[in-house]
Specification:
It comes from Thermobrachium celere DSM 8682. One of its GO terms (cellular component) is plasma membrane. This is Iron-sulfur protein. The structure is a single chain. The chain has 19 helices and 11 strands. Helix 14 links the parallel strand 8 and strand 9. The termini are far apart. It has 3 domains: 87 residues, no CATH class; 127 residues, Rossmann fold (3-Layer(aba) Sandwich); 106 residues. By secondary structure, the chain is α/β, with parallel strands linked by helices. Helix 1 runs antiparallel to helix 4 and helix 9 runs parallel beside helix 19. Bound molecules: iron/sulfur cluster (3 copies). The site of one iron/sulfur cluster has 10 residues, from helix 8, helix 10 and helix 12.
Length: 352
């Protein structure tokens, strides 16, 4: 089924059509572009003539925006496909039936059962849905450490609404984000430390009046244990992490005395959860993971997003950096988190 796009989208397409000279650097970087777009120059030319697009296609983009860093002309397919998703999903739902899974996730994530803001301080720690789903113990350990530094700090168990945004359902996203913002306001919270890079990006972009700090820049100032692990680790950078976060992560691994395969920072790739592509295109999700795997030598991977940890655990021994910081005994790899376990963990965390 084809979707006839607006003049606003046409402007983006024509701008990109003028700039693109078909070098294909982007298709070599991104598996989605390689499989579905194949030749960007011809793709833009066709779009600008036909003014329509396969209605399902924009939802296969991981929305990582990393193509813009690869392209010599900073062409950002993420912007184009995000705008298309917003337009297609405007005032209605996305055309993918399976996105009902995301809607249910968003409904539960923002229900009274799983949300709360504990404490009465003006600063808060927001672990995000994925870390809360993975390990309430790790959340409490890092929260207690932050408490020592800040004396009084809130625990914010709320979702930033990014899953709704990433499938273009802006009305829902605004509803979730406004509700989060109102709750923060009511509590007079003006500084938030986030463990999730997507929360960090979402909060920074939508609330420039708030002081948003990455947990990793905080931890980098802490005293950390010197580990004596023999194995080498590959750092899998979250696609939403900026250069400062990537640098902090490397400094933390140095302090932890870890052997690292890739100390230099490069342009990240999405783990496959971005844009919620894993829900609607399993084949592309798996191809992306296999592509990532082929570029990693070490059997162990360090991640600093619980979503990335989950995704990468399908192909490698994958650990969240907090698991290394709070390591007791041997390092034991865990597989992907089961859905029912995720919700139980979030309930547990709320009760702690
Ligand atoms: S990298 Fe940029 S210029 Fe090269 S093909 Fe891709 S979009 Fe076009
Ligand atoms: S998945 Fe990421 S790199 Fe690929 S087109 Fe979308 S935004 Fe660009
Ligand atoms: S970005 Fe992901 S983990 Fe963070 S709050 Fe939003 S949905 Fe949850």
């Amino acid at each position: 089924m084809k979707y006839k796009f607006s003049l606003k989208i046409k402007d983006i397409v024509e701008k990109y059509n003028d700039k693109c000279y078909g070098c294909n650097l982007c298709t070599n970087h991104c598996i989605f572009l390689k499989k579905y777009i194949k030749n960007p120059k011809i793709f833009f030319q066709n779009l600008s003539i036909e003014n329509d697009i396969d209605i399902y296609l924009p939802y296969y983009c991981f929305s990582c925006n990393t193509c813009s860093k690869i392209c010599p002309n900073n062409i950002d397919f993420g912007v184009l496909f995000t705008e298309l998703k917003k337009e297609i999903s405007k005032n209605k739902k996305s055309p993918h039936i399976k996105h009902s899974i995301i809607r249910n996730h968003q409904m539960l994530s923002n229900s009274k059962i799983f949300t709360t803001i504990k404490g009465n301080a003006t600063i808060g720690f927001m672990p995000g849905c994925s870390l809360s789903s993975y390990s309430p113990t790790l959340v409490m350990k890092i929260y207690n450490l932050l408490k020592i530094k800040y004396n009084d700090i809130n625990l914010i168990l709320r979702c930033c609404g990014n899953p709704s945004y990433s499938i273009g359902e802006i009305k829902k996203f605004n509803e979730i984000y406004n509700s989060l913002y109102t709750s923060l306001n009511k509590k007079n919270i003006n500084k938030i430390i986030t463990a999730c890079q997507t929360c960090y990006k979402t909060l920074k972009e939508n609330s420039p009046n708030l002081d948003i700090v990455s947990l990793w820049e905080e931890i980098n100032n802490f005293e950390l244990p010197k580990l004596t692990l023999e194995d080498k680790f590959y750092i899998f950078d979250s696609c939403s992490a900026d250069e400062n976060i990537k640098k902090s992560i490397r400094e933390i691994t140095k302090k932890l005395n870890l052997k690292i395969e890739n100390m230099e920072t490069t342009v990240s790739k999405c783990c496959g959860l971005g844009g919620c592509v894993h829900i609607v295109n399993k084949e592309l999700y798996n191809d992306n993971l296999n592509n990532i795997k082929s570029n990693i030598n070490s059997k162990n991977v360090i991640t600093y997003c619980a979503g990335c940890r989950d995704s990468l655990s399908n192909i490698k021994y994958s650990y969240h950096l907090l698991e290394l910081i709070f390591l007791e005994g041997n390092l034991t790899p865990k597989g992907p988190n089961k859905t029912h376990r995720s919700w139980i963990n979030r309930l547990k965390l709320k009760a702690l």
